[in-house]
Amino acid sequence: METATDFVSSVNDVVWYPIIALLIGLGLYFSVKSRFVQVRLFREMFRVITDKPDKLPDGQDGISAFRAFSISAASRVGTGNIAGVAIAIGIGGPGAVFWMWAMAIVGAASAFVESTLGQLYKVRDRQSFRGGPAYYMQYALGKRWLGLVFAVIITITYGFVFVAVQTNSIADAVSSSVGRSSGAINIAVGLVVAALTASVIFGGVRRISSVSQVVVPFVAIAYLLLGLLVVVLNITEVPRMFLEIVQGAFGIKEVVGGGIGAALMQGIRRGLFSNEAGMGSAPNAGATASVSHPVKQGLVQSLGVYFDTLLVCSITAFIILLAQPDFSANVGAALTQDALATHLGDWTIHFLTIAIFFLAFTSVLGNYYYGESNIEFMTGNRNVLHTFRVLVVVCVFVGAVGSLPLVWAIADLSMGVMATVNLIAIAPLSVIAFRMMKHYLDQRKLGLEPTFNRSEMPDLPGVQVWDDTPVSELAPAKA
Questions:
Q1: CA atoms of 277 and 303, how far apart (whole Å)
Q2: What number is the average pLDDT over the span 371-391?
Q3: Can you say whether the dihedral through the CA atoms of 323, 324, 325, 327 is positive or negative?
Q4: Torsion angle (degrees, nearest 10) of CA 138, 139, 142, 147
Q5: Is the pLDDT of residue 276 over 80?
Q6: What is the distance between the alpha carbons of residues 118 and 287, in angstroms, rounded to a whole number?
């Protein structure tokens, strides 16, 4: 097992340098071309997330912007925010936190582009809509083969690898909570989570979004409140903590690992795993929303990046760094649990186990949906989809009994490949996203609630929907 971990880690150390260059380069390009849409339209993100969904042809309400946000948040807000941040700090030191923040701000522009495209090139399905990178690769680029490549990669990455990461962290947290690690505990965790997963994923996207929109906000808010309490109780140590973060980011003070290189690498890799900006995952969730303009989901998913990294990941980092822990003693979720217990008592170890369970479980649901959406892109055979669901449940169980370092190393490799394919696709398509942004803002300047009809841009290739609302039915914008 150790040999396999070392091999995958060595591959990651090589391939991630060009991936990071691509992430940063395109993120900065999208930021400049959009005049920093991720900052300039920050208030607008909160306005559109409360939009009511349009009616579908079957008379039911479509999936709202908030419910689509909840699906993507279910995938984003999970073990990456608790275990992933702890791993980043444990290997890269406090400086890794700075690079998480930097990548979130830059990456929010990539999230805007990919999710706007995901909405624009969505298609109808039985329950609402579906879409994502595979769809805009086929319909906008005219390259179905590239869409198939991406669909296979995301199905493996999210449907199999990432669900294993989530249950692996649940098992790790449960072991810390009961004070011992054993195969029996891991097996029990795997069986419970696998059974719960099966009960939800066979119900479709409506059931997934229904569970996610309740569980994710409640658990995340409870975790944030505890974290804020830790900050208040240690307010005099906060300046020291921020100084350590900045010094570690630029190699001024090496606390752990290999200085600036380790901080940069871990911050970006763990940040990407957590907020998924530019990976091509969130557009699959954003495409399910029934909204009046594609840009609305671009803005909502950019907000999701901030919520995930600047809020939830930061709280984890503050909990750990304010405890001044021994980084060599624990890794992953156990490090966060021990740090929280240092601040507020041993009861928080059990609280965090419960929080990790729910956040990781909803991440499994969100991750599964990304696979389902792309299975349906590849084939309409329902037997294939049912087989995929069974395999997901199996991977949920296997993840609970697997090796923590190996599972995370495989996750790093698979998400790097996936992000590369998606970024190569959205680079030439970004001009369409910026054109949609101008169309949206022109209507906002007139005081209208932005809508889009494909007849307004007949030269756009491959748009499959967006012909339901007449252009004349423009409504005044809500306050």
A1: 11
A2: 87
A3: positive
A4: -10
A5: no
A6: 5
Burial of 268 (0-12, 13-18, 19+ CB in 10 A): buried
Rounded Cα–Cα distance for residues 338 and 177 (Å): 10
Q: For 200-249, how does the pLDDT look when each residue is reduced to its tens digit (9 = 90+)?
A: 777 655 555 565 566 667 777 888 888 899 999 999 999 999 988 888 77
The residue with greater pLDDT, 436 or 198, is 436
Q: Is the pTM of this model over 0.85?
A: no
> What H or E segment, with its residue span, contains residue 466?
none
Those residues whose C-beta lies under 8 Å from the C-beta of residue 446, and which sit 6 or more positions away, are none
Q: 2-437 maps to which CATH number? A: 1.20.1740
Domain ranges, ordered by start, for the chain: 2-437
Q: Is 141 helix (H, G, I), strand (E, B) or coil?
A: coil
Question: Cα 107–112–117 angle (5° rounding)?
Answer: 130
DSSP per-residue codes, 16-45: HHHHHHHHHHHHHHHHHHTTSHHHHTHHHH
**Backbone torsions φ then ψ of 475, nearest 5 degrees:** -115, 155
pLDDT, tens digit (0-9, with 9 covering 90-100), for 327-355? 655 566 677 878 888 888 888 888 888 88
